[in-house]
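Its record is retained below.
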Amino acid sequence: MRRFKGGRPELWLASSLCVALLALNIWLNPARFGPASLGITFGLAAPLILAAAASMVPILAGRGGIDLSVGPLMGLVNVVVVRWLVDGLGWSSPFLIVPAALLLGLASGVLNGWIAAYVRVQPIIATLGTSLLYAGLALTISPSPTGTAPAWLKALADPWSWLPLAAVAVAWLLVKRVPYYEHLMAVGSDDRAAYTAGVPVALVRFLAYVLAGLFAAVGGLSLTGLIGSADPNVASNYTLLAISAVALGGVSLAGGSGGLAAAVLGATAIFLLQAALTFFNVSTFLLQIAYGLVLTLAVVMSSTRLRRADA
């Protein structure tokens, strides 16, 4: 039987990839990865890392908790902030925009969590529906790239690129200090045993999607700072890349094993691979092939780890 292994993800492959790819990138482009450019580099990597953090939580909750709405939600946050809040309402203060973006993420998490945990629709189907909804709303609000983000939001790409990452890291550390974390890992490992032990399984999974929505909203703010405008199509690739990062980092796609460090390592490896390929001016078609290979490799690795655990 597969046993509960919370907090012990297999990080060796992602760590090795990160070290090798970082060395390659430093050799190819030392200026971009030098100390003076770290802020910009963090700003480029932050949206993918935050998308991976958002995808991680429902996956940890088990029952095939793949959230396909992470990327479209980041895109929706992007256009809502720039088109509605900044251009429409004239808001510019972070004390207005950040809570509004988090509220949008919270609403998305509540919707996804209610459908997946209480209506008990398969998560991949439930979040496919909401992903199409968010993508359609984003295109309706802003059919083409437009608008300008406030200066403080652009600063999240540099020099304050570390701030969204730190906020999510602190939030996750707080989650790990409360009983919910143990419940999350137990539910993901074996929901029947967790239910027998008195764990509120549906509520735990519901809150996992709420956390995912909040993390994705932070990712949407980081993405807005990076591109500096509203673009309804810019976040389309983040969903599958985030899932690839989670699996590549060592988080079990069956749930109950992994954590934020694994998701961050996986996302960092994919970002560094992307940076190296971009340096050689690889076409977007070949980039898509590389992403597909990474996703396939990550899923195969996750399945192999699961079979070993069941043995």
